[in-house]
Amino acid sequence: MKRKVIAITGYIGSGKSLVSNFLRQMGYKTVDCDEIAKQISEQPDTVCAVKELLGDDYVQNGHLNRKAIRLKVFSDPELLKEYQALFFGTVKSRLNDIVSQSRETVFVEIPVIDAFDFPWDEIWLIQCDRKILFDRVAARDGVTADSVAEILSRQKQPNPTRTILNDGDLSDLRKAVIDALAQAKL
To answer: Per-residue confidence of the chain (186 residues) as pLDDT tens digits?
Structure first.
């Protein structure tokens, strides 16, 4: 069977990480682009570049204040593009390395699907009811509904190969993932 590279994407709070966790538990290889970006954000040159772009208030003890940065950059489209440009090239490069070394299907959790061009074999879009999404993100991140709305307004949704609904409980989501795997013949 040909190795596939499948993107797992969706709005913040939609359940991308839950889907990735299910896939990992089932023995599939998963990669988290946010985790790659976090590793990049710990590099001193990245910290300096962010400090230069946003100012001293967004770096604390040599580390990025991700929550403050998220609130700042998602409120300004041009600043968001500049901030993302600091990461996307390196994330793509590391993702290419991981994929090229794998002989098996790789699932890639990627919140910003249009971050860079990539030859996805499939794109799985995780969706849920907007109220559920707002409640999840507000509870998880301690942010206001307005902050969630601002972030959502900046996230683009792709034309997916498959859509997985995450409006129910974990067993419903697991079943939806298993159904998607069957449809993808994996």
So the answer is: 578 999 999 998 899 999 999 999 999 999 999 999 889 888 898 899 999 999 999 998 888 988 888 888 888 888 988 888 888 888 899 999 999 999 999 999 998 888 888 999 999 999 999 888 888 888 888 877 787 777 777 777 788 999 999 999 999 999 999 999 999 998
Domain total in the chain: 1
pTM of structure: 0.82
Q: Render the chain in DSSP notation, one character per residue.
A: ----EEEEE-STTSSHHHHHHHHHHTT-EEEEHHHHHHHHHTSHHHHHHHHHHH-GGGEETTEE-HHHHHHHHTT-HHHHHHHHHHHHHHHHHHHHHHHHT-SS-EEEE-S-TTSS----SEEEEEE--HHHHHHHHHHHH---HHHHHHHHHH------SEEEE-SS-HHHHHHHHHHHHHHTT-
Residue 38 lies in a domain: yes
CATH code of the domain containing 12: 3.40.50.300
The answer to the question of residue 147 being in a domain is yes
Q: Is residue 186 part of a domain?
A: no
Domain extent, residue 151, equals 5-181
